[in-house]
Design a protein that fits this description.
With 149 residues, this protein is α+β, with helices and mostly antiparallel strands. 40% of the residues lie in helices and 16% in strands. It has a 4-stranded mixed beta sheet with strand order 1-2-4-3, sandwiched between helices.
């Protein structure tokens, strides 16, 4: 119990928002991922595939939950088995989350995003991942004009 308290205190001293994108800004439910992939628009790069779904557009037959009505941006990260073994998939997801940290405040609100890792991503550097993600977000028109460039 003391170890858990120590870890929680240590994490709170670092600042939860600085360390990672907060949980409420992440896509966690399978239905959310399916909705974004099924009804969203996709943008491809050799390292990453980006799916974008505008939250104000509700597909017919889909209930509109309160979480998806939030004005911010929610991001989901996935890596399929084609990326590699579990270690490589986890590395790919960590790279995507790290690349997203700097770009997250620059994204126009009102969208759900799904980032899917492709096979060469685990061997890529963080700077390559950030450049790929910046390219995809720019192509999708999701970067706010004041932060573009």
């Amino acid at each position: 119990m003391d170890a858990l308290r120590y870890r929680r205190d240590r994490m709170s001293s670092q600042g939860e928002g600085e360390a990672q994108v907060k949980r409420r800004f992440r896509l966690t439910r399978s239905g959310d991922f399916q909705r974004v992939r099924r009804f969203g628009k996709s943008y491809a790069h050799p390292l990453i595939v980006l799916f974008v779904f505008a939250k104000h557009i509700v597909p017919e037959g889909y209930p509109c939950g309160t979480a998806s009505e939030a004005p911010g941006v929610r991001v989901g990260v996935a890596a399929g088995r084609t990326v590699g073994n579990a270690v490589q998939r986890n590395r790919a997801k960590r790279l995507l989350r790290a690349a997203m940290q700097n770009l997250y405040p620059k994204i126009v609100p009102g969208f759900d995003l799904v980032l899917i890792a492709r096979q060469p991503l685990p061997s890529a550097a963080l700077t390559q991942t950030q450049e790929a993600l910046f390219t995809l977000l720019s192509r999708a028109g999701l970067l706010s004009p004041t932060h573009d460039g």
